[in-house]
Amino acid sequence: MSYTFDPLVPRPIDLPTVVPLDGATGDGATPGAPRGLAALDEAKIFAAPDDPAEWAAWRERLEAWRTDARERHGFTGAVYERPRAAWAASCFTIAQVWLWDELLYSFEENRFTPERFLADARERFAGLDAVVLWHAYPVIGIDDRNQWDFYRDVPGLTGPDGLVATLHAAGLHVFVDYNPWDTGTRRGEDDLTELAAVVADLPADGVFLDTLKKAEPELVERLEAARPGIVLEGESKLAVERIEDHSSSWAQFFADSSVPGVLRAHWYERRHMQHHVRRWNRDHTDELQSAWVNGVGVMVWEVVFGVWVGWSERDAATLRRMVTVQRAAKDLLLDGGWTPLADLAPEAREAGVHASLFSHDGVSLWTLVNRGEQDWTGPVLTAAPAGRLVDLTGLATATDPTGAPVAPTGGPVSVDGATTPPVVTVPGRGIAALLHVAPGAAEPDWLPGLVEDMREHAASRDARFPHRLARRVAPAAEPEAGATRAPDAGVVVVPAGPYVLTVRYRARETGMYQGAPYVEEWKPLSPRLHDPRTLQRDGELAAPVAVAATEVTNAEFAAFVDATGYRPATSHRFLAHWVDGRPPAGHEDEPVTFVDLDDARAYSAWRGGRLPSEDEWQLAGETGGLLRGAPVVWNWTESEHSDGRTRYAMLKGGADHESTGSEWYFDGGVQRPEFSAKLLLPGLGLARSSSIGFRCAWTTDEVTA
Fold it and tell me: How many C-beta atoms lie closer than 10 Å to residue 167's C-beta?
C-alpha cells in the first residue's frame, strides 16, 4: 500500500512556526505592529533559531507578539480568576484512563480499584494531578446506547463512595470526555443539556473535548452554569482568541525545533495549562523536554483504546523528577519572569544543553534539557552566582538499565561564595534543574521539602519498552457432569486437524490481538486508519468440534434459568429486555441478548458444551451451515484475552444494528464469517448488549451433522 505521507514524519501542520526577526512593520493587523506578528497566532510552537546570536531578538519578537495579540483579541484573563478553576494552572500530570483498565477495575472482584491505580501512579509517576475517565469509545455503536448512557449506567461511578468521590478524596481532579461526533445512537436531550447534566451529576472538574479544538461559547456558558469553575481542554491547537475561555489545551502531536521552542498558548497566558502527548510514541523525550522548558504538563496515556503503549522507566523517571520540582515551584513557574533559552556556558550549549530561566524575588530556577545522547558533565552557567545554588536533580544516584547505580553526578548540592560555576550533570536525552537563592533573598519555604523529595527521584537509563502480551483467559464455566450431551443434529461439524484462516477486520485504534497498530507515528490518517485489513490465523483441532447451527433463544435461556436458578455475579443489565423475569411475548424464538461472556458460558456448560472459539465459529460459518436468528446479533466467542490492563473478546457474525454518522463507532451490519470485531470488555454488566447473543459448541468424536 502506498501513502501520500510518511507516518513517521511530522505533517506540515504539526511543525513549529518560524518567528521572523526582520523587524519590518505594516502587516495591517495593528497600526505600527511588526510585520508577521498576526501570522504567529497560528503557531503551535514558536521555533527557536539555531544561532544563539539571534536568541535575544527572538525573545523580543515573542514579547511583541504577545502584547499585540492580547490587544487585538481583547484578552482579559477573567476565566483564570475563577477560584474553583485555579488548580488547572498547576495541573502538571493528567492521565487518560479507560474506565475498565485493569489497573482501575477488577474483573475478578467486579469492582473499581482506585487504590491500585493510585498506588501505581505514585510509584511510577510521582502521582497524578488529574485523570480523564474515558468511557464510551471504542465500544459505543455496538448498540443504541449513547455517550451519556456509558457514564450514567455505570454502577459505583457516582455517590459518596463512588469512583469519582474516591479520586477526589485522593487529590485528583476528574475530567469527562465529550464526543461531539456521537449523533447516530439513541437520542435524548441536546448535547449541551446532556453534557451539563453529566458534569453536575458526577461531579466533574473538567471536560475533555474529543476531536474538538474548542467549545463554542454557548457550551462554555452552559457548562459553567452547571459546574462553576469547570475546566475545558480541547484536542490539539487552541485558537488564540479562545485562550480567553479555555483554561487548558492538549498539545497533541506538537513538533518542536532542534533548539527548544516556546508553546504559543502558554506564552500568551502562563496560567493556560497545556499537556504534551504523543499517543503512539515509545520515546517520550521530546514532549517531556518541551514541557520542562515551558513549565507545562504532560499526559500519561499508557493504554490507548485498549492498546498497550506503556512508558519506559527512563521516561517515567524523568517525569517523576519534573513534576516533583514543578509542583513545589509552581508559583515561580506561573509568576516569575520567564527567559526562554537562557544564557548558558558555551561548552554546555554546544553539547546540546539548553534551559529556561524562571526568576522571582531573588529566587531563580533553571530548567535544563540535554538534546544529545550523551551525558553532559561540566559547568552549565557562565559564572557562579553569589548566594546558594542547589543542583536539585543531582541529589539522587542514577541507575543503568539493569537498575544498578551509576556514579553520582559529582556536582555539589549547594555552593556559597564559589568563584567558578559548579559542575552539573544533565543526562543524555534527559533533564536537570538548578535553583538559586540570591544573597538577602528569602529562601522558599518549600525548598527543604523539595530537596528531601528529590533524593528519592533518580534518573534512569533504561529506555526499553515494557512489552505486554495479551493471553487468553481460561473460562470459569466447565461442562456440568450429567449435562445434556451434544445434539446429533442442528450442528455444523468442523473436522479435526490443522487449519488456516484469513480473517478480515477494520483497522481501528484498538488494534487486534497483539501490539500497537501504530508505533512512533504522528496522527494516523487514512488509509492507515479504518481501512479494511486481513490477518492469517492457523491452528489445529485435536478433535472434531460441533458448532450449533442456531443461536440460543430467549425460550432456551429461560429454561436454563428455570432449571438452575442462575443468577450472575453482577446482575446489572442481565436480560434487561425481559419483562418480569420472562421473555417478552412473541419474542421467545429470538436470539437471547443482554447476556455477557459469563452468562453465555454458564448456559453452555449446562448444555454440556462451551462457547466456540472465534476460529471454530469461522470454520463452521464458512461451510454455509450457520443460521442467523432474527434480529441478527453478534455472537460471543471463547476469545477473552487480557494483557493485564485491557480485557477484550472477538465477536463474529455482525448484527442488524449499525450506528451511522461517524467512523468512530463500533462495527455494525451483518458480516461475513471471516470478519472479526475486537470488543473491549467493560465491567459491571455493561458488556451486556441488545446486539450480542451466542451459540454453543461441543468437542466430540460422536456427533454427526
Answer: 22
Name which of 114-123, 252-261, 487-496, 580-589 the model is least confident about: 487-496
Query: What are the beta bridge partners of residue 692?
Result: 634
- Give the model confidence (pLDDT) of 642-664 as tens digits: 999 999 999 999 999 999 999 99
Question: Rounded CA gap, 129 and 93, in Å?
Answer: 5
As a whole-number percent, the residues of the chain with pLDDT over 90 amount to 88
Please state, in angstroms and rounded to a whole number, the distance separating the CA atoms of residues 305 and 148: 18
The CA–CA distances, whole Å, from 490 to 258, 392, 695 equal 67, 73, 11
How does DSSP classify residue 41? G
Cα atoms in the 13 Å half-sphere on the side-chain side of 286 = 19
CA dist 266 and 255 (Å) reads: 15
Beta-carbon-side half-sphere exposure of residue 116 (alpha carbons within 13 Å): 11
Nearest alpha-carbon partner for 262 in 287, 233, 290 = 290
Pairing of strands 532-541, 497-506: antiparallel
Query: Mean pLDDT across the stretch 237-264?
Result: 97
Q: How far apart are CA 618 and CA 541, in angstroms?
A: 13
Task: Report the alpha-carbon distance of residue 506 to residue 531 in Å, rounded.
Answer: 6
Distance between CA atoms of residues 669 and 26, nearest Å? 58
Backbone conformation region of residue 305, classed left if phi is above 0, alpha if psi is from -120 to 50, else beta: left
Strands (E) located in 469-619: 471-472, 491-494, 497-506, 532-541, 545-548
pLDDT in tens, 156-165: 999 999 999 9
Distance CA 594, CA 570 (A): 12
Q: Using an 8 Å Cβ cutoff, are 287 and 298 in contact?
A: yes
> Strand, coil or helix: what is 152?
helix
Residue 499, phi then psi, degrees to nearest 5: -150, 155
Q: Which distant-in-sequence residues (6+ apart) come within 8 Å of 109 by Cβ?
A: none
Q: How far apart are CA 150 and CA 170, in angstroms?
A: 24
In this structure, are residues 80 and 247 in contact, taking their beta carbons and an 8 Å threshold? yes
pLDDT at 614: 98
Q: What residue has cell string 436531550?
A: 189
Q: What is the largest CA-CA distance in the chain?
A: 94
Contacts of 554 (CB under 8 A, 6+ apart): 578, 583, 584, 587, 588, 589, 590, 591, 592
Length of the chain in terms of residues written? 705
- In 380-537, which ranges are continuous DSSP H helix? 447-454
Write b or e for each residue in 526-554: b if 16 or more Cβ atoms lie within 10 A of its Cβ, otherwise e: eebeeeeeeeeeeeebeebbbbbbbbbbb
Query: Rounded distance, CA 301 to CA 430, Å?
Result: 20
Distance CA 315, CA 438 (A): 32
Amino acid (1-letter code) at residue 131: V
Residues paired with residue 103 on neighbouring β-strands, in sequence order: none
pLDDT in tens, 94-150: 999 999 999 999 999 999 999 999 999 999 999 999 999 999 999 999 999 999 999
Q: Write out the DSSP string of 196-243.
A: HHHHHHTT-SEEEETT-S---HHHHHHHHHHSTT-EEEEESPPPGGGG
What backbone torsions phi and psi does residue 513 show, to the nearest 5 degrees? Answer: -80, -55
Which pTM does this prediction carry? 0.95
pLDDT band at 412 (very low <50, low <70, confident <90, very high): low
CA–CA gap between residue 387 and residue 359 (Å, rounded): 14
Q: Give CA separation, 597 vs 189, 200, 305, 676, in Å.
A: 32, 34, 21, 17
Q: Which DSSP letter does residue 25 get?
A: B
Q: Is 98 helix (H, G, I), strand (E, B) or coil?
A: strand
